[in-house]
Design goal:
alpha+beta, two-stranded antiparallel sheet, about 30% strand, elongated, binds zinc ion
Length: about 80
């Protein structure tokens, strides 16, 4: 039985999915550390699996669009 070292245990902060991956494996690239600033400027960092990263990108795109709309509507109060 071979023994392989230097694996990292990934656990998704959203759905709890986990995986043991070598740092140079293709699957490790599917995991993302996402950073987000709340209304008070506090930064939250979360580790997300591939499917949660895809879902987060959709949320971020909606928030990007809302921010662009907010900035474009400067004459409205
Ligand atoms: Zn997940």
């Amino acid at each position: 039985m071979a023994k392989t070292e230097n694996y990292t245990h990934y656990v998704c902060d959203r759905c709890g999915a986990d995986a043991y991956l070598a740092a140079n494996s293709a699957a490790a690239n599917d995991w993302r550390d996402v950073e987000r600033f709340d209304q008070y400027g506090s930064k939250a960092t979360r580790l997300l699996c591939k499917s949660c990263t895809d879902a987060y990108k959709q949320l971020a795109a909606q928030q990007d669009a809302a921010f662009q709309a907010f900035m474009a509507a400067k004459e409205q109060r």
